[in-house]
Amino acid sequence: MSNYSPEVEERLRREARQIMDRYPEGHQQSALIPMLHLVQSEDGYVSANGIAFCAQMLDMSRSEISAVATFYTQFKRHPAGKYNFGICTNALCAVMGGDAIYEAVSSHLGIGTDETTEDGKITLEAIECNAACDYAPVVMVNWEFFDNQTPQSALDLVDDIQADRPIHPTRGPQVCPTFTQNEHLLAGFLDGHQHEGPSAGEPSVLGQRIAREKGWKAPDNEQAIAAAKAAREQAENEGEEDK
């Protein structure tokens, strides 16, 4: 049993049922991922209360809920800050400056990855990929894009957050939600900002535009298979000649 207050329990149950109703009868355990986002929107992390609530609603064991919650890095096991400050340190972003950005922000805040500032405003995270390589290096604040960052621009962004100044994503919505607000959105409850701004810009579609201008097309399956077969035969023949 969860230990939420009666008012919170009633609201969470109402919203959980809305989530479960999106799935066919008999398959409602598939609602677990959005329901974990729902309880995280309430507690700021996947708490013991949240795990018990999901287990009760979905007729699953708490260990089953925990197994899923600990698999995905988006689900926090301890209270997160108001803003999750994710810096991509994967290959492309790293060589474009992501590593330098992470070091600058970590030193400035005095925390490492998955740690939170004492004022509870910022949780720092080194992210493997933000799926935004066309705008590298990229920072994501509560999963909203802040593109083409530098160490200084990232520090300015941190200072704005700590000073409670509004921050504006490069693409997408015109406002940046708090961590718990965004978790409610990820649970499937729209916040009214879903149609604001494009999520793909010129760098995202540049390759497609050039291909259309030049009339380039991907080969059909038969052509691709034939080309792969020819390349393999050529490699085998060259290998025989080298013996």
Number of domains: 3
**Which architecture name of the largest domain does CATH use?**
3-Layer(aba) Sandwich
- Share of helix, binned: 40-55%
Number of DSSP strand runs: 5
Q: What class do helices, strands and sheet pairing give?
A: alpha+beta
Query: Which geometry do the CA atoms define?
Result: globular
Quote the beta fraction: 5-15%
What characteristics describe this protein?
8% strand, 5-stranded mixed β-sheet, globular, Arc Repressor Mutant, subunit A, 3 domains, alpha+beta, 243 residues, Glutaredoxin, 5 strands, 9 helices
Structural features, described:
By secondary structure, this protein is of the alpha+beta class. It folds into three domains: 6-71, Orthogonal Bundle (Arc Repressor Mutant, subunit A); 83-178, Glutaredoxin; 200-242, no CATH class. It contains nine helices and five strands. It has helices at 6-20, 32-43, 48-58, 62-69, 91-109, 151-162, 179-186, 202-214, 221-242; strands spanning 83-88, 115-116, 122-127, 139-141, 144-146. It has a five-stranded mixed sheet with strand order 2-3-1-4-5. Strand 4 and strand 5 (144-146) form a beta hairpin. Helix 3 packs across helix 4 (62-69). The longest helix has 22 residues, at 221-242. The N and C termini lie far apart (71 Å). The mean pLDDT is 94.
